[in-house]
Amino acid sequence: MGSGSFSLSKIFSWRGLWMLGKLLVIIAIPMGISLLAGKIYQSWDDDPDRGAVAIDKGAFGENYSTPIYLDQGWTPNDSLWYYNTTQGSALIPYDFFIALEQSDSTELFRSNDLIDKYRYLPQKPTFFNPDGLPVGFVKESYKGNDYVGYTCAACHTGQVNYKGHAIRIDGGPAMADMVGFLTDLEKSMAATIADAEKNQRFVAKVLELKNTYSDAEAVQADLKRWARKTRLYNTINLSSVEYGYARLDAFGRIYNRVLEHVISRNQLRDVLLGVTKAGNEDLDLLTPAQVDKVLEGISETIIGDLQFAKIIDRLMSTKEGYPGLNMDDMNRIKALIFNEPNAPVSYPFLWDIVQSDYVQWNGLASNAGVGPIGRNTGEVIGVFGILDWTAHKRGWSLSSLLTGQKSKSYQIDFTSSIDLVNLSRLESHLASLTSPVWPTQKADNPTQEVAKAIFDKLPEWQIDGAKVRRGRALYAEYCESCHEVIDRTDRDRIVVASMANIDVMGTDRAMAENSVNYKGYSGNFNNTYQTESVGGLVIKDRAPVVQILTAATMGEVATEPDPDKWWPRRALDWLYMMAKSFFDNQIKASVKSGDYLPDTTAQPYQSLLSYKGRSLNGIWATAPYLHNGSVPTLYDLLLPVKREGDAEDGLYRPTEFKVGSREFDPIKVGLRSEGYEGFTFKADKRGDFNTGHEYGTAHAPAVNGTKQEPLTDAERWDLVEYIKTL
Fold it and tell me: pLDDT value at position 22?
């Protein structure tokens, strides 16, 4: 009997395994076919111009022929796939972007003139981009609807111009003015609502597309809905520090977007009841009855974009029972919930990012394991991923387990439009991207040969070999301890960040300090645990936003991606993505390098009060310089900041210059900084200071206890010449 029982159980065991194997094969075969088809499809767009177009009568008087490319390891197909692959961002409905007119004319909002005005990069229609959207603007399909959103390339594709020639830089920092663009988008949508004729044209164009919308009432309702969302985003993120071109406080905006979706109704109620009248802290601004009326019908756990917009409208309403607050009162309430994004930084360049141990200007994100997918998820949260986060009663899910919510009465379900699979694919795609080579440098590459043939005719672009040799020795003495020289094509390279304490480095402190010091309401993450390098931490009711963001991204990454797919496909996609993160990622967990203050139990984020130095290959194509874009050229970066008592006739960093032009200066190595009507940058406030990193000047800090001799002006030029060749 015992042996018979054993045999029967054995049969059932093998039968179960056989059935499971069959099921996996049945699922895996179509998945494999789908992946193969995707790979084939990925290679179909190979326009030799990579979609680039010439611009006539461009912003700031810049006209240029069809942009060319340099040797960066990518084919035209590689560039076009990068430009046009969605990551799950949804700025507004796709049909709206196609049909929307500018606020003060009948010209389309997406016209090349407006795109160029805000320094995004216009494109012609290609196979992946049939409507000719700008670089990095892509169609996202989510829950049966189409949207236009940002992908990596919008903020991480650069261009430099010179006397009518243009060079497109894949993975380079954008010159984009996102704030200006979004402000203009808000105005255009408001004008379309208010102007009857403009509204009629807009609705007709949307319906003609026969895509997402089939009736005018739905168009009108969604126009108002998305106009409110855009206005809310711009209002929350209004900053006293003007960004201008080529900068964005991405962290500040990501932080605020998370706080908007995490704060609970009870936490918001406590905030509103605690606000006092301006100039009199003994008088409450709002009565309990007014607060309850404002929050009537609002979700208990997750509020989100549209409900927040409704709350704002109610707070400012003069209807019976509502408080009718003015803008000063509203700004005081906003400051209690959100943080001012007042630390704009340059868009980082992306070559070597896959091979880097730590990324972000202050080394916030480890690149080991699932670090890249978590970092990129946070980025999509910031650039308009649809966060359909909801709360449900206690149950089991991997996201609730990893975010410490397993014992909570309610748990957050992190359903969203964020495309985790594509984020993983985009990160892998960047592994083959290399830094751009100076146009007159030789390379065994037909793309580089085209550039060399053009720029070899221009004497100012020629490399002086004698200066380079002298500059190499100077670089070894003054720069290489923080900025290692690497082989840009070495497949096994690991780019190690050299972290420097902001007290020693002396550069503008705003970004580093905000990343650590900003706090917000934690919602359902209150009283959950989070593991940091120094040990476990309890997330409090009002907590560092870095903790709340970490919990939110962890919840997103632990959630099966793409709700539009069949659930077995979602599960297999998630398993594939996780396995790829661990086994296809050559970066392993490691201790940060450099001179910084380490994390402690008392200061668990102290190491983030630092900025990183990294290899400078391709740095010539990434102006303006320093992390906050406060120095226009490499030559200017080698000059000291003028201090009280310094000679009036000395050479110093400029404290005011123009930003917005892409016209390149091949001598100083940077972009045109005067003589046109661009954005006026002034290094006169926190967030804008151009101080620090004064190595090679009379104000240089000691390096390893040794004070270096200041560079002569001739030596500065030698050093600049060498850096051109990196």
Answer: 61
- Asked if residue 516 lies in contact with residue 608, where contact means CB atoms within 8 angstroms, the answer is yes
Contact 692, 510 (CB under 8 A): no
- Please report the pLDDT score of residue 10 as a whole number: 46
Cβ proximity of 580 and 476 under 8 Å: no
Q: Which of 263-267, 275-279, 479-483 has the lowest mean pLDDT?
A: 275-279
Report the distance separating Cα 263 and Cα 267, nearest Å: 6
CA–CA distance, 160 with 163 (Å, rounded to integer): 10
Distance CA 313, CA 232 (A): 10
Strands 542-544 and 610-613: unpaired
Residue ranges of E strands in 386-460: 390-393, 410-413
Report the pLDDT value the prediction gives residue 5, as an integer from 0 to 100.
41
- Whether residue 181 contacts residue 120, with contact meaning beta carbons closer than 8 Å, is answered with yes
Query: DSSP secondary-structure letter at 592?
Result: P
Of 396, 320, 367, the C-alpha closest to 612 is 367
**CA proximity to 167, closest of 46, 247, 64:** 64
- Separation CA 627–CA 361 (nearest Å): 7
Model confidence over 628-687: pLDDT tens digits? 999 999 999 999 999 988 898 889 999 999 999 999 999 999 999 999 999 999 999 999
Query: What is the DSSP-derived secondary structure letter of residue 602?
Result: S
Residue partners of 515: CB distance under 8 A and separation at least 6: 251, 362, 364, 546, 605, 608
- Residue 1's pLDDT is 38
Q: What crossing angle do the helices spanning 371-382 and 567-583 adopt, rounded to 10°?
A: 120
Average pLDDT of the segment spanning 44-53: 93
Q: Give phi and psi for 178, each to the nearest 5.
A: -65, -40
Asked if pLDDT for residue 379 goes beyond 70, the answer is yes
End-to-end Cα separation, the chain, in angstroms: 78
Interacting residues of 204 by C-beta distance below 8 A, sequence separation 6+: none
**Is residue 342 within 8 Å of 514, Cβ to Cβ?**
yes
Indicate if the pLDDT at residue 130 is higher than 80.
yes
Confidence check: pLDDT of 564 > 90: no
Q: Maximum CA pair distance of the chain?
A: 103
Q: Which residue is it, tokens 């290959």?
A: 617
Q: Residue 226 and residue 216: Cα distance in Å, rounded?
A: 15
Q: How confident is the model at residue 37 (pLDDT cuts 50, 70, 90)?
A: low
**Dist CA 307 CA 313 (whole Å):** 10
Cβ–Cβ under 8 Å, residues 539 and 524: no
pLDDT tier at 40 (50, 70, 90 boundaries)?
Answer: confident
Residue carrying structure tokens 């992390």: 627
Inter-residue contact 127 to 121 (CB < 8 Å): no
For residues 135 and 555, what is the distance between their CA atoms, to the nearest angstrom?
30
Burial class of 675 by CB neighbour count within 10 A (0 to 12, 13 to 18, 19+)? exposed
CB-count burial class (<10 Å; 0-12, 13-18, 19+) for 48? exposed
Collapse the DSSP code of 324 into the 3-class scheme (helix H, G, I; strand E, B; otherwise coil) and give the result: coil
The DSSP string of 54-112 is: -BSS-GGG--B-S-EE--SS--HHHHHHHHH---SB-SEEHHHHHHPBPTTSSSBTT-H
Residue 4: band (very low, low, confident or very high) from pLDDT cuts 50, 70, 90: very low
**Rounded average pLDDT over 416-425:** 92
What percent of the chain clears pLDDT 90, i.e. is strictly above it?
A: 77
Q: Residue written as tokens 């076009």?
A: 80
CB 251 within 8 A of CB 343: yes
Average pLDDT, the chain: 91
What separation in angstroms does the CA of 660 have from each of 154, 379, 686?
A: 16, 24, 21
pLDDT of residue 331: 92
Q: Are 78 and 176 in contact (CB under 8 A)?
A: no
Tell me if 203 sits within 8 A of 95, measured CB to CB: no
